[in-house]
Design brief:
The complex is a heterodimer of chains A (204) and B (267).
Chain A (H helix, E strand, L loop, with lengths): L1 E7 L2 E7 L8 E5 L6 H8 L7 E3 L7 H4 L1 H7 E4 L10 H6 L13 H10 L15 H14 L4 E5 L7 H13 L3 E5 L3 H7 L2 E4 L6
Parallel strand pairs in A: 3-7, 3-8, 5-6, 6-7
Antiparallel strand pairs in A: 1-2, 1-4
Helix pairs in contact in A: 5-6
Chain B lengths: L10 H20 L5 H28 L2 H21 L3 E3 L2 H25 L7 H32 L1 H9 L4 H26 L7 H8 L4 H34 L11 E3 L2
Helix pairs in contact in B: 1-2, 3-4, 3-5, 4-5, 4-9, 5-7, 5-9, 6-7, 7-9, 8-9
Classes of the chains: A alpha/beta (204), B mainly alpha (267).
């Protein structure tokens, strides 16, 4: 990522962000509220348009890769994930219907991941009936099953207790993807991330 | 149509009919419903608009010029497009242009199609047929299209997180928009489908009522009405679909992003 500036309506919140992320690196993105952490993740995922600068994956720009394909490979997970009123397994299978999915949905892989995260009994439960913390984990499973190269995670364990958060971290370490993680938890940054980028308060 | 004609109404009797509205206004005052002012404005508008349109139609019928008819049709389409967009609780830049183009295409295709292929009117622009028929198509079309627009912009605005969740998981803009588009088109079609279900049972449509009052054979009036219901259904369906697609093209960009920043609320 080179010289990225992110913000809204053409006004930059952050300028000149530059970093690169190697395979299996996990980088923490920290900073005060309003410093543009979420906007940075959304801009990298091309859900918001970066104001300037460029982002590439193995040298390829989003436009070259195709935006939907870019997002499948550089996958953003919002802090409060959205679902579509289905049961857990249906929600996990849903993105595999998109044209960009690189594989068939594997129920076995899905159940395996749910089991590791302590959700084995929830495979047929409606997502709407799960707790906030359970939904966060289902959203992470949904993302990881798509086998992205980079995961952009916005406070992925904010609704989890320490033990569950560590379980998630251990599972994410096994995933192929490099990770860019917004976190307010210094302990999580220290135990899980291999490097960190601190954003300053928003540019005036 | 036999030209027996309905019994004429003179000015005095017309004024007498205002008694219905005055009575409603008195009830509103007595019960403090606060409706009397709206009722007054609505009544005055009804009188003014209908008298005006009566003069304009009389003038257009006498002058018998295709250009004049075309001009009148354009004004009707523009007014309908404006109303369709204004009734929606949210809009975006370009909605009105889209609604105008869609109403022009669906309105003219169905109206001219019906007058030419079904009724066989000569010449095609004969205002006695095309003006009231287009009026009905536009009236129904704008109701459906405003519901469709309202539902689509509302679900994209309020349901932004869902749409962006799909996009973030690799959906194309089309895959992410399909659900909201389908719902919006269904919503726009509900009124016309409902009225097709009950037509003739609960109410007699205005045009059929008019023909029967004019002394027409009810079975001839019914045939006209069937043609009209089919026209309305077709025009509304295509109107909603085209407007939904147009809105889709404006509210998603080439980077497969949802542009809620282009949606604004109408107060």
């Amino acid at each position: 990522m080179e010289g990225l500036a992110v913000g809204f309506d053409g006004r930059a919140i952050q300028r000149d962000l530059s970093f690169d992320l190697q395979p299996s690196e996990r980088m923490a993105l920290t900073g005060p509220s309003g410093s543009g952490k979420s906007t940075t993740l959304r801009s990298i995922a091309m859900l918001d348009a970066p104001i300037e600068g460029s982002v590439t994956l193995d040298g390829q720009a989003p436009s070259a890769l195709g935006y939907p394909q870019w997002r499948r490979r550089v996958l953003y997970v919002a802090q409060r994930a959205s679902f579509f009123g289905g049961a857990v397994l249906d929600e996990l299978a849903r993105p595999f219907r998109f044209a960009t999915a690189s594989a068939e949905f594997s129920e076995r892989a899905a159940v395996e991941a749910l089991t590791v995260l302590g959700l084995e009994g929830k495979r047929d439960a409606l997502v709407a009936e799960l707790s906030e913390g359970e939904r966060q984990r289902v959203a992470l499973v949904r993302a990881v099953l798509l086998d992205p190269d980079v995961l952009l995670l916005d406070e992925p364990t904010s609704a989890l207790d320490r033990a569950s958060a560590e379980r998630v971290e251990a599972w994410l370490r096994e995933a192929r993807a490099s990770i860019l993680l917004v976190t307010h938890d210094d302990l999580q940054r220290e135990r899980f991330c291999t490097k960190a980028l601190a954003l300053d308060a928003a540019d005036a | 149509m036999p030209d027996a004609g309905a019994l004429p109404i003179d000015a005095w009797h017309l004024a007498l009919s205002a008694g219905f509205v005055l009575a409603a206004g008195a009830v509103s005052l007595a019960l403090r419903l606060g409706l009397e002012q709206k009722l007054l404005v609505a009544s005055l508008r009804t009188v003014a608009q209908l008298l005006l349109v009566g003069y304009v139609l009389g003038w257009v019928f006498t002058l018998d010029s295709p250009w004049l008819v075309l001009g009148l049709l354009s004004i009707m389409i523009a007014a309908a497009a404006r109303a369709a967009v204004r009734r929606s609780s949210r809009t975006y830049a370009g909605a009105q242009t889209g609604a105008f183009a869609v109403l022009a295409v669906t309105g003219l295709v169905t109206t001219v199609g019906a007058t030419q292929l079904v009724i066989g009117v000569e010449p095609w622009w004969r205002p006695q047929y095309i003006v009231p028929l287009l009026g009905m198509v536009l009236g129904n079309g704008l109701t459906g299209m405003s519901l469709c627009l309202d539902e689509l912009t509302r679900s994209l605005d309020e349901g932004r997180a869902k749409v962006e969740s799909d996009l973030a998981l690799g959906a194309t803009r089309w895959e992410a928009a399909r659900g909201p588009l389908r719902e919006a088109i269904r919503r726009g079609m509900i009124p016309i489908l409902n009225s097709m279900m009950v037509v003739g049972i609960v109410s007699l449509p205005g045009m059929m009522t008019g023909q029967i009052l004019q002394g027409a054979d009810p079975s001839a009036a019914v045939r006209y009405q069937i043609v009209i219901m089919f026209m309305l259904a077709g025009a509304t369906a295509f109107g909603c679909m085209l407007l939904a697609l147009w809105s889709y093209s404006r509210l998603f960009d080439d980077a497969h992003r949802l542009r809620v920043d282009r949606i604004r609320k109408v107060s």
